[in-house]
Design goal:
The complex is a heterodimer of chains A (299) and B (471). Chain A has 299 residues and is mostly helical. Chain A has 13 helices and no strands. Chain A has two domains: 36 residues; 229 residues, MetI-like (MetI-like fold, Orthogonal Bundle), CATH 1.10.3720. In chain A, helix 1 packs across helix 13 and helix 3 packs across helix 12. Chain B has two domains: 156 residues, D-Maltodextrin-Binding Protein, domain 2 (3-Layer(aba) Sandwich), CATH 3.40.190.10; 223 residues, Periplasmic binding protein-like II (D-Maltodextrin-Binding Protein, domain 2, 3-Layer(aba) Sandwich), CATH 3.40.190. Chain B is built from 22 helices and 14 strands. Classes of the chains: A mainly alpha (299), B alpha/beta (471).
């Protein structure tokens, strides 16, 4: 099909407007990632300056995947963190969204402002705040636990509870996000089918199954995907609350990579771990996206 | 918007509107140019040179923070401004390394931890000191290498026989204890009755044994409501305080135990021996002290340990010289004036005195634009008269002349530090040192939190260190 002069001019204008942001995106993401891949294929360990910059092929990847029990442990801890945090954020988000929808508009506006407060704080500020609250000697939360009969329970110092507590801090911070997304979805559901279902005597469970869930499925998929991406990359709250300890109890992939790169100054190994993590995130995104899109095609 | 600049639109504009558009665009561009150039002045005939500013990076503790005040005196004498950038320990290390790697030269003078000396030298991040020391236009005869503690210079400043800096702080870990509690007659009586020997008082000349340390820790661990030194406790009291967080702090602390139990990480033949029976015994003893430590001890670093002691909740512990001024600051500490200081405990039968070294050196960034001025500042800080001045406001001197000064030695913790410097125990300065510290901290933290047994922790650590050393 031959395009006219107007079409070609339109394309040029579009390119002119899209060019700068695409250039910025390439500069801030694609090029750094390409450099990361480059680093992962070279020896970049400050501990062995005599081999600095030498091309080593897949050696860094082999070292991570075959000879590094710490990375494997970090992946397991990250998986646990993601599973607990995302599941709780999704369930609590749905419950809160349903609750907000049941309120009158005036009260809903007030409640919404309160609900989103944790999300407005910087993650570092959130982590520091909880670090002080959970401080074993002076923390308010520790004293509250003592009042409930749990004396001397330093939850962040105990390997059995530390990861769950870190998950709870993440849930506290990000449930407002899932709440907002789900509430937007619920609010967009047209009233007539809902009213008709009530008149027809459908139970709450049947209404959820036949009306709410089909409409919310896509939105839930997107919210879960976004939270999955964030949870897999979690760093700040873990680093500040526990530093990855006690022992390996809360060492997630990001803190492990940080330690390998900036503490042990092995930039090549750190880059290889980063590329592996990126690949895992890509696969997870693909699965979740495909699952939510696939169901939409079937419906 | 797309159609605005099209040829057809321009053609259809009237001549008057085209001139208006041109005028508006020109005016906008000229205004922007004027606004940009407004601050520029024409060159003067004799332009004034900007004063040189030296940027110093280091750990945010009294030795570095006091450089701000001391730097003003240097500025008055030499006309060079000093800007100090103090950061938390790990942040200071990261920022220094990033500055070196990027070659930006943001920091001229680096207050660097001794165990990174090899890494800095092998990667050519810092300048050798010999050319500056041999330059008669820069050399200050008041600064003599024989006026320093030789081990401190060897560990913090020399690498493969060459000098790369001068000492910035000479600090070790030594024993802190509550002298007021140890000296209380009722406590002494109760201790003797319970353990069958007199309550030992550690000093800078006489070390207690680890068995006595454990007895003291057990004796002074009491619940809220119990009596201590004739008063009813309003909070729990702990005999000691471990720094068992997964952080360099725990590896440093454990280093005292390794050395005094007769163990090593790597022996003189280059063999990794961190899984030896001596080190295992040291770790098992170290972990046994958790029973007398605050509950959150597996999340404590040196900062948390300092706070616990300042709040009067700990009877004795092993801590850093550079934290001692904060302990004796009445505005921040409830135990100011109540503390005693002594040598680290010794292992009966081994009788080896050891104090974990944590000193820093002053190095010159290879990318510094003012290396001569940086050398002058470092050298000036190590003058005997400046060392004494600095010591009074937070510095940690390495000069023998300072430690001979009666006024300086009158302060008890200075005597303990002086005695400890004679027995310092330091980590390797090889480029891989930080890797060993990271792995070591993990091993001790795993054992302290019960995730693995002490034997397994050391066995895994030995395997990891062998891999590191073999590279």
């Amino acid at each position: 099909m031959k395009h006219g002069v107007g079409y070609r001019r339109q394309r040029r204008v579009i390119a002119a407007f899209l060019g700068p942001p695409l250039f910025l995106l390439a500069g801030l993401t694609v090029i750094p990632f390409a450099f990361c891949v480059y680093l992962s294929l070279h020896a970049m360990d400050l501990s062995t300056p005599e081999t600095m910059g030498e091309f080593v092929g897949w050696d860094n990847y082999r070292g991570v995947l075959q000879g590094d029990p710490g990375f494997e442990s970090a992946m397991i801890v990250t998986s646990k963190f993601v599973a607990i945090a995302v599941l709780l954020e999704t369930l609590l988000g749905l419950l809160l969204a349903a609750y907000l929808q049941s309120l009158t508009p005036r009260i809903r506006r007030v409640m919404m402002a309160i609900v989103v407060l944790p999300m407005m704080m910087a993650p570092v500020a959130v982590a520091l705040m909880w670090l002080f609250l959970l401080q074993p000697d002076y923390g308010l939360a520790t004293h509250a636990l003592a009042a409930l009969g749990l004396e001397n329970t330093p939850v962040l110092a105990n390997p059995r509870t530390a990861l769950f507590v870190v998950c709870c801090v993440d849930v506290w911070e990000w449930t407002p996000f899932t709440t907002l997304v789900f509430w937007a979805g619920i609010a967009a559901i047209p009233r007539p089918p809902v009213d008709a279902a009530k008149i027809d005597g459908l139970s709450v469970g049947q209404r959820i199954e036949n009306i709410y869930w089909p409409k919310l499925r896509g939105i839930v998929g997107i919210a879960v995907l976004l939270r999955l991406l964030d949870a897999i990359k979690v760093f700040d709250i873990v680093y500040i609350l526990t530093g990855g300890g006690p022992g390996d109890a809360t060492e997630v992939t990001s803190t492990y990579i940080y330690r390998a790169t900036f503490r042990e100054t092995d930039f090549g190994a750190g880059a290889a771990q980063t590329v592996i993590l990126y690949y895992i995130i890509l696969c997870v995104c693909g699965v979740v996206f495909h699952a939510s899109q696939g169901r939409e095609r079937l419906t | 918007m797309m159609s605005f600049f099209s040829k057809n639109t321009m053609r259809s504009m009237t001549r008057r509107n085209r001139w208006r558009l041109l005028f508006t665009l020109s005016g906008t561009i000229l205004s922007a140019l004027f606004a940009t150039l407004a601050g520029c002045k024409p060159d003067e005939e004799t332009p004034q040179p900007k004063p040189i500013t030296l940027h110093v990076i280091g750990e945010a503790l009294p030795p570095v923070e006091s450089l701000r005040e001391l730097g003003k005196e240097f500025s008055r004498q030499y006309g060079v401004q000093i800007e100090v950038h103090p950061f938390e320990f790990e942040t200071a290390l990261s920022k220094t390394l990033l500055d070196f790697s990027a070659g930006t030269g943001n920091y001229d003078v680096v207050y660097g931890i001794y165990f990174n000396l090899g890494k800095y030298v092998e990667n050519k991040y810092i300048l050798p000191f010999e050319p500056f020391m041999n330059d008669t236009t820069l050399r200050d005869p008041a600064v003599r290498l024989d006026n320093f503690f030789a081990p401190v210079v060897q560990v913090s400043c020399e690498y493969k026989g060459q000098l790369y800096g001068l000492p910035a702080s000479a600090q070790t870990m030594f024993l802190w204890y509550r002298k007021d509690l140890f000296s209380h007659p009722s406590e002494q009586e109760a201790f003797a009755e319970r353990y069958g020997y007199a309550l030992p008082l550690p000093t800078a000349e006489r070390a207690i044994t680890w068995a006595q340390y454990r007895d003291l820790a057990e004796f002074f661990t009491r619940k809220k409501g119990a009596t201590l030194a004739g008063e009813v406790l309003k909070q729990d009291m702990f005999g000691t305080c471990l720094q068992a967080k997964r952080h360099p702090a725990c590896w440093y602390e454990f280093g005292n135990y390794i050395a005094s139990f007769g163990g090593q990480v790597v022996n003189e033949q280059g063999d990794v021996v961190v899984d030896s029976p001596e080190v295992l015994e040291a770790l098992e003893f170290y972990l046994s002290l958790r029973a007398f430590s605050p509950p959150g001890t597996t999340q404590y670093t040196w900062d948390d340990a300092l706070t616990a002691v300042q709040q009067g909740r700990v009877a004795l512990t092993i801590m850093w010289f550079d934290a001692t001024p904060s302990l004796e600051d009445a505005k921040a500490s409830r135990v100011a004036g109540k503390m005693g200081y002594g040598l680290n405990p010794i292992r009966q039968g081994v009788e080896k005195r050891a104090a974990q070294y944590g000193g820093w050196g002053f190095y010159i960034n290879a990318d510094s634009k003012h290396p001569n001025e940086a050398f002058q500042f470092i050298q000036w800080l190590n003058r005997p008269d400046i060392q004494l001045k600095w010591a009074k406001i937070g510095g940690l001197p390495a000069t023998l002349s300072t430690y001979r000064d009666p006024e300086y030695l009158a302060i008890p913790f200075h005597r303990a530090e002086r005695a400890s410097l004679e027995h310092l125990s330091a980590w390797t300065r090889a480029p891989y040192s930080e890797k060993i510290i990271s792995k070591g901290a993990r091993a001790v933290s795993m054992a302290a939190s019960g995730q693995t047994s002490p034997a397994d922790a050391l066995s895994q650590l030995a395997k990891e260190i062998r891999e590191i050393v073999s590279q």
